[in-house]
Write a structure and sequence with these properties.
Layout lengths: L1 H29 L2 H9 L6 H11 L15 H4 L2 H10 L12 H36 L4 H15 L2 H15 L15 H30 L3 H8 L4 H12 L1 H8 L11 H7 L4 H10 L3 H29 L7
Helix pairs in contact: 1-15, 2-3, 6-9, 7-9, 8-9, 10-11, 12-15, 13-14, 14-15
């Protein structure tokens, strides 16, 4: 097990390097250091001297991938990519282009993101599995057809529509919950009800279809026929056998998501004015703050890799046939 984890972590290094290369290349294809300086300085009249000084202070005066003015290894090492990437691999996120400590911002903003992501994840998981089991119980019936039709319809509509419709209906028309905002403690619950509800509802279509396909595959296997032959009711078969044996494929979509929960939802947080990591990333993109963008992309990649490793490890506990070496 230990050797497997070490090997996977070593394999992750070239993946993270590749992610960094793509991040740097795409960002600076759209933005130039001069544009970034003007955006951060925020002055109507920015002189070339001011721009050059800002770039030197933030390290953007160096070439991106290759330094023609250096010799030897410095042609590669004395570049913006290498110097900034080395900091990322030590989890030194440094300062944003606006001068804030990125690590402090991440720690502060991860809690609002978790406040939305965790309830949405847990409630959505339980709801989707329960509905999928109910559909399998009445498979082939009119209820099955109607539910699948509704699920496809929910999947076909953009999540942005649910956000806008929810704000108009529940906040502006009925005044049940605030339209946006955030607060700590118990007071913050009223701000979380609507985004959590929308997050759960928007994911029902895809979730129910996925879990239904898993349970339908399990219900055709020999152990189910054996359980029925022993006189077990269909409900006991579903919840006592099909659900248990369907946990392995479910883990694929569940465990890998857990480490990335605190990254937040880009659109949800922006529309509801929640100061989480999702809105933090959106604001950084809009303000051309590359310090934040590269840190969030790198951190998201690391968490996703951790999720994949945890998924493989969890297989060994739910399926003794799986061996990690």
């Amino acid at each position: 097990m230990f050797a497997y984890i070490v090997r996977r972590l070593l394999f992750a290094v070239p993946i993270l390097i590749g992610v960094n290369v793509i991040t740097f290349a795409l960002f600076f294809m759209v933005n130039t250091p001069d544009d970034m300086a003007r955006a951060q300085l925020g002055a109507k009249q920015t002189t070339p001297e001011m721009i050059q000084s800002w770039k030197q202070d933030h390290g953007y005066d160096k070439p991106l991938f290759f330094n023609h003015n250096s010799t030897g290894l410095d042609k590669v090492s004395d570049t913006l990519f290498v110097q900034e990437s080395l900091k990322l691999f030590t989890f030194d996120f440094g300062q944003s282009d606006s001068g804030r400590q990125i690590s402090s911002d991440i720690y502060e903003r991860m809690w609002p993101s978790l406040a939305i992501a965790l309830p949405t994840f847990i409630i959505g998981l339980v709801t989707n599995i329960a509905i999928a089991l109910l559909i399998v119980l009445f498979r082939g019936s009119t209820l099955d057809s109607i539910t699948m039709g509704v699920a496809v319809a929910i999947m076909s509509i953009s999540g942005l529509f649910y956000i806008i419709a929810g704000q108009v209906l529940f906040s502006k028309t009925w005044h049940w919950v605030p339209i946006s905002g955030y607060a700590d403690g118990i007071e913050g619950i009223k701000f979380l009800i609507l985004p959590v509800f929308i997050g759960v509802f928007a994911g029902i279509g895809a979730g129910v279809r996925w879990y239904r396909s898993i349970f339908l595959e399990e219900i055709t296997k020999d152990y189910v026929r054996t359980a029925r032959a022993k006189g077990l009711s269909e409900i006991k078969v579903l919840f006592g056998h099909v659900l248990q044996n369907g946990l392995l494929p479910i883990l694929t979509g569940v465990v890998v998501v857990i480490p990335t929960l605190f990254m937040g939802s880009l659109i949800m947080e922006s529309f509801f004015g929640i100061p989480g990591l999702g809105s933090y990333t959106i604001d950084a993109i809009q303000s051309q703050d590359f310090g934040i963008v590269k840190a969030m992309v790198f951190l998201g990649s690391v968490l996703y890799i951790i999720g994949l490793i945890l998924t493989d490890i969890s297989y060994t506990y739910f399926d003794p046939r799986v061996k990690l070496s």
